[in-house]
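look at this one:
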Amino acid sequence: MTEILIPLKQHVGAPCRGIVESGQHISRGELIAVPNGLGANVHASFSGTIVEVDDQNVVMTIDQEQDFSTYVKIPETESDIQAVEVAGVVGAGGAGFPTFLKLACEITEGTFIANGAECEALLAHNVKQMKEHLAQLVRGVKYCMTMTQAPKGVIAIKGKHRQLVLQMEKAVANEPNISVYQLPDIYPAGDERMIVREVLDIVLEPGQLPSEVGAVVDNVETIKRIVEAIEDRKPFIDKDVTVSGRVKQKETVFVDVPIGTFAKTLINNVGGYVEPHGEIVLGGPMTGRSGTEMSPITKTCGGVLVAMPFPQESRKIGLLICECGGSAERMTEIANNMGAEVVAAERCKRMVEVNGRYRCALPGICPGQAQTVMALKKQGAEVVMTGSCSD
């Protein structure tokens, strides 16, 4: 029998509290955990028997026969926004913020923006969704406009997808309150603050929320899960995932992968590794984290990327840290795997501290870093590692 684990923390906030017990048989779609403060409901994505519930995971032995076309539907609700809450929808683009809270604000003179940027390299599942399910996306935007009371809706997508842009413009031709905006092909085009700057020509201060200027931004897969919750009463139990890198079938999109599926399962489904290979990255190449073959797919995991083996580096490394790329911890991990010593770290000069967290003042507009590099050199760095910088 196969065991899988479903993490209790797939969102911003504390891990959820499990409400099932060892030995209990669970059907796909059944509620298994509820928020413990800020969070979102967690439902079973497989049918099976509960093995263990701890502070971090629900472990299940899954039934040999699985019917992924069915699920336990969420209860009827008084409103669409309650359906989104009960279904456990969170930001599927990686942020994991509970979606019902984002949609709860009233922007009666504002704009709802569907984020279709998919700005990290190698990822392709959002573009596939938009190409194949445009009508669903438009319906989702309309639902979100109604819930937020936004009079205008915008679908933001990179202009390089010319054919898709034309399809989108045709899809909204009879929707006078919805338009298509073409984003530049730069990183991080999917950052909420950058999208607001591009679409609305409003520069958000670091730490300032889009809702403060009359905007709500949701990733297009998040909108897909919103539509499913409202129309199909489906909980958030499946995730679209791109598998790429050092695998035999590159840039493969898997649609509706049951949450809890092991990364190794998807790698096997694309023919396995291309050798030599290195670490498995969960998410995108810029902001993803290191995983293993047994890492489970979660609500926020959009990619399983297999990297090259780490090059070896004997020179001393200085870290140039920015909000838009890998964290200091992630870059230190990479440096250690390269066999290198980190001797210094400096923040990009765009970084400013807001409520104890360093944020980028202007995402996507990188400054010159000569001063920062010189500071690293003075501290003994022979080479520089940075997560993201155009300089």
Summary: The radius of gyration is 21 Å.
